[in-house]
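Notebook entry, structure prediction.
Reason for the run: the old model in the group folder had no record of what sequence produced it. Starting over properly, with the input documented here first.
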Amino acid sequence: MAQPTLHDVAARAGVSIKTVSNVLRGVEGKVSARTAARVHQAIEEIGYSPNLSARRLRTGRSHVIALAVPDLGNPYFAEVATAMIGAAREAGYTLLIEETGGEAGAELGAAEHLRDPLIEGVIMSPLALGGDALAQRTRSMPIVLLGEREPDAEYGHLSVDHVSIDNAAASRALTGHLLGRGFRRIAVIGRQDHAPYATATALKRLEGHRQALTERGLTFDESLAPAVPGAHYSKEAGARAAAQILTRGERPEALYCFADVLAIGALRAAHDQGLHAPHDFALAGFDGIDEGRFTIPTLTTIRPDYADMARQAVSALVERMTSEDPVPPRDIPCGWDLVVRESTQAASSPS
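New structure, fully documented this time:
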């Protein structure tokens, strides 16, 4: 039995082939909601599946892009992926998602996609892949990176964009919030300042934290900021670091975690010691994952504008894929908010 075609869908829905194409590419704003629903119903009734290879043969374009992230088990990357799917669909593209494990080889493979010629461009959040390695790609794939530029790396010769919030400014604001609530002895969980695990994001968040302390005439105490080993932030890493901090010497008044998953792990470690935020210490995270709205206490955090991040990244990638002229490398900022919740209620005895 022959596979249903675009013509079959159009005939079943009583619309033109162009209308069906618009619906399939996600540009449903060009048709009414009723017409789009009719097309979707026809697709389901006759079992139509788009033939991406045939589309590429006809047009030279597949309208398929990829998102490569280190760990989909991390809620931050899951929220990034959800936002990217929506932004890609709105732009008329299909998004494929790949998990790299934060390994340099897998990240380089995602940046090249040699085995999948349908993919026209890649958005990726690398942990181990630096600018020098990107320059060694054998396939010049349009690419957009999520996150800060690699420290001391030269990207001028690479046609890549970086889409990121201003991590230093956001971290400075969060530390300023803790200081404004009266907390002075602030421990940090998430420091990564030794190769090969010193990500640009971690360095910028530490920079912003130190700036806020300096502005208040305070000195950064490295003993309150033990390095977190490994490239991945996780609940386990947060629990280990918090247990170390909370069991030695004078207990800090606040814990500032460079990721919400670290903060959630810290909550567990504190509970195991009979300590609870915000009664015994204030707690703040970073990333604004949805889970933070349901922890006890609810978690104060920096929430990136995921929708803005996704729109910016997809738009930049589409421009790189379709522009006839070279596009220079760009740093593209996206929005963020300080979200204050129960975990940083005011100190009872500010010093």
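Summary: Residues 6-50 form one domain.
The old model has been moved to the deprecated folder.
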